[in-house]
Write a structure and sequence with these properties.
heterodimer, A: alpha+beta, Cyclophilin, seven-stranded mixed β-barrel, four-stranded antiparallel sheet, 14 strands, globular, B: about 350 residues, 2 domains, six-stranded antiparallel sheet, about 30% strand
Chain lengths: ~250, ~350
């Protein structure tokens, strides 16, 4: 695993515009996850969404890049490239701040027990005790670096260096909705029941995606999440009685 | 309100349209019909908007009826269709009388579609009606489900449209991805020369392919950052097997992608029966864009290719009285037209 780059300097040869599929473009701000590249991608997405570039159907971000889906009957990457380049050159995206309207979420979670059976294994890989592992994972708010893979599903980071642990080679056949899993200095909260290669260390009662609501997605990129360890008994009470899985939020900017 | 009632629904039947654009940034892929061309063909036959919702049948069976006369079309993977015991032509429009049972069976795999004049008007969720099973939006349709119909402005039936050939596997055209060059030149060349078998393991999220010969895994212990993914992307999974992402794919992923299938060739992939041979051919991005534009134009002009089914409905004095007759066949016309 490559060491994470520090600082705000733009990586060499970045940002770069590539085709992604026939009708897509990928603007990459880094090949490894850095704070600056993540902020750059979020800020560039906001900027391009505010333009009225003809033929742009969708804009999304992953950890360090922005994806554009194009209507080929109106434009293509060649015809958009000058405008994209001009926008890229218009400012230092790596120096961008975080999105407006961010929130801090306090989220109760059970660590370990049969609800989250891989805590011990993950702690051993990180070289700490299970108790210390929980303390580390709950020590500070983690940032929603991107939402992706499944609806409303956050990638949270960045964890201390000890947590640069690999994904497992074999997939866990199924983790439940609300599962909290760890790998490569990140945590993922699962919005749907799914197979995964990340280790299942915690369980929350969050429902990250509720399609029948007016605001179906709980978290947004830039939000922060602070996990609060609770006992199995407390968790059962939360599941039964607490709205939003016991999570509460406040504005941070 | 007029509606459709499902009497006997097998597994794998969903309501589908062109999906939900606009939620990629929230991790929700577009979803929608696996063979979008089939919905476009159905819309051309009914002279209506291709964004209206219909029923997708994934290698299954279905019996339904309507409580008012409704125009229907049958497109996508051919099935045996009986209407009150008489066989109906595939890839054609018909008038289904109120209370008449329409029975579809004998699927040989792939995805079959029933479109309705006026479309199905279930409540929209996030701007579309399609089920997105992976995201937990809606569910498979079941016995006893009632689906409301929208108002139908059209009236013509008894029309047929030759389908674009896509039911026997064959060549899928691909373009390079930003990760293609992670694979050595010799491996990329071997990929383009290899014959793949369509695995039985496939669903609305993606389709696994099995190469004749070794897999295509990268030897270096590569850890890629999760990156944006689109339908058509060919991931090389841990076991070296290609996995082509489809309508309900995840929105990001960390496996290397060797290439991306052209959107206009995805119907050929999803409609190939399990076990069919598929192979890939790299084309330049420029050529791929031109091919997509040509196909978009062809789809927009499909109405010009409609032809009367067996006999011209205009020649009949009382069209409604003939509606069942007009579409009746001997039941042996499942042989597909190679377009």
């Amino acid at each position: 695993m490559t060491e994470t780059l520090q600082g705000n300097a733009a990586p060499v040869d970045m940002p770069v515009i590539n085709a992604l599929g026939v009708d897509g473009a990928l603007i990459s701000f880094g090949t490894v996850l850095t704070e600056a590249a993540n902020r750059a991608a979020l800020a560039f997405r906001a900027a391009i969404s505010a333009t009225d570039m003809p033929g742009l159907i969708e804009v999304s971000t992953s950890l360090t890049s922005v994806y554009l889906r194009l209507d080929l009957t109106i434009c293509d990457l060649d015809s958009l490239r000058p405008a994209l380049t001009e926008l890229l050159d218009s400012r230092d995206w790596y120096a961008a701040g975080l999105p407006e309207g961010r929130r801090l979420w306090r989220v109760p979670a059970v660590f370990g027990t049969e609800l989250a059976p891989q805590l011990e294994e993950a702690a051993a890989l990180a070289g700490v005790s299970a108790l210390d592992a929980v303390a580390m994972l709950c020590a500070a708010p983690l940032r929603v670096q991107t939402i992706g893979f499944a609806p409303g599903q956050p990638y949270l980071g960045e964890l201390p260096k000890e947590w640069n642990i690999p994904r497992q080679t074999d997939l866990t056949p199924r983790v439940p909705e609300g599962a909290l899993a760890v790998a490569i200095r990140q945590m993922v909260l699962f919005s749907v029941s799914t197979p995964t290669g990340w280790r299942h260390v915690g369980q929350t009662a969050l429902r990250l995606f509720q399609p029948d609501r007016t605001d179906p997605f709980l978290l947004r990129p830039g939000d922060e999440v602070l996990f609060q360890p609770v006992s199995r008994a407390e968790f059962e009470t939360i599941i039964r009685h607490a709205p939003e899985g016991g999570a509460v939020s406040e504005r941070v900017n | 309100m007029a509606g459709i009632m499902l009497h006997r629904a097998g597994p794998g039947i969903t309501l589908q349209d062109m999906g939900r654009p606009g939620y990629l940034a929230q991790g929700l892929s577009r979803g929608g019909a696996m063979d979008r061309l089939a919905l476009v063909e159905g819309a051309a036959l009914l002279a209506q908007d291709a964004t209206l919702a219909g029923i997708e049948i994934a290698g299954s069976f279905l019996t339904l009826s309507a409580d008012a006369p409704v125009r229907i079309t049958l497109t996508g993977a051919p099935m045996r269709v009986l209407c009150d015991g008489a066989a109906l032509a595939w890839q054609a429009s018909h008038l289904l009388q109120a209370g008449t049972r329409l029975e579809l069976s004998g699927s040989r795999g792939g995805y079959s579609y029933i479109s309705f004049g006026g479309g199905l008007e279930t409540p929209e969720l996030l701007g579309a009606r399609s089920a997105h099973l992976a995201a937990g939006i809606a569910r498979m349709l079941e016995n006893g489900d009632e689906l409301p119909l929208g108002p139908d402005a059209g009236h013509r039936t008894g029309l047929a449209l030759a389908p674009l050939a896509r039911f026997d596997g064959g060549v899928l055209r691909i373009v390079e991805t930003p990760q293609t060059r992670l694979f050595p030149q010799a491996e990329r060349a071997r990929f383009a020369e290899t014959v793949f078998r369509k695995d039985a393991r496939g669903n609305r999220m993606g389709q696994r392919l099995v190469p004749q010969g070794p897999g295509f895994g990268l030897k270096t212990g590569l850890t890629l950052l999760s990156e944006a993914i689109a339908p058509g992307d060919i991931q090389i999974t841990g076991d070296g097997m290609p996995f082509v992402l489809l309508a309900e794919c995840q929105t990001t992923g960390g496996y290397p992608r060797i290439a991306t299938v052209l959107p206009s060739d995805l119907p050929r992939l999803v409609q190939a029966p399990a076990g069919a041979d598929l192979h890939f051919r790299f084309v330049s991005l420029e050529e791929a864009v031109a091919l997509e534009r040509t196909e978009a134009k062809r789809r927009a002009g499909l109405h010009a290719d409609l032809r009367p089914l067996i006999r011209d409905p205009h020649d009949m004095a009382d069209l409604l009285a003939y509606q069942l007759i007009s579409g009746v066949t001997r039941g042996d016309d499942l042989e597909r037209t190679e377009g």
